[in-house]
Amino acid sequence: MMCKVLIFSCISAVMLMTAAYGAPLSEKKHLLETLINDLQLLEKNKDKIDLKLYTPNGTQECSRRTLQCYLTEIGTLENEIEEDGNCLQNIKKNLQGLMVGNLFTQFKKKSNKKKCFSIRTGCTICEANDKKEFPAFHQELTNFLRAMLK
Q1: What three-state secondary structure class fits 54?
Q2: Is the pTM of this model over 0.90?
Q3: Cβ atoms of residues 71 and 96 within 8 Å
Q4: Tens-digit pLDDT profile for residues 53-73
Q5: What are the boundaries of each domain within the chain?
Q6: How many helices (H) and strands (E) does the chain have?
Q7: What CATH number should be reported for the domain whose range is 26-45+52-149?
Q8: Nearest Cα to 122, choosing from 53, 65, 69?
C-alpha cells in the first residue's frame, strides 16, 4: 500500500512540474496569437492612419530591443489617434507581457544555435531606424510576431 502511495505521489509531482515548466511557452504562444489577431483588427483602418513610425528591421539578435521599439511606437500611435483605442491598448498590454519574465524566449537560428537576447551593443536604438508609414510599420510588426511564433 505504501508503495502505491509513493508511486502516485511521484507521478503527481512530475505532472505538476511538467505543467509548471510548460506554462510560459503556452502563455507566450497565446500572447503572440492574440497580438496577431489584434493587429488584424487594426488592419482594416491602417490606410486611414497618416503617421510615420520608427520601424525596426527585426534582426533576431536584437529581438528584445525590437520589441521595445515596437512597444514605444504603439504608445506613440495610441496618443496620436482616437479610433481603435481598445485595440491599441490590448496590443500595448500584450507587447508588455512579452517583455516581462520568462515569456521572452529564444529563437532558434537556421543552424539550430541559440542566441541570447539581452540588449546587445550592436543593436540600434529605436530612433536610428527608418520612419515608415503606418501600413509598412503594421506589416513589419506582424511579420516580426509571426517569426516569434514559429
Answers
A1: strand
A2: no
A3: yes
A4: 999 976 667 888 899 999 999
A5: 26-45+52-149
A6: 4, 2
A7: 1.20.1250.70
A8: 65
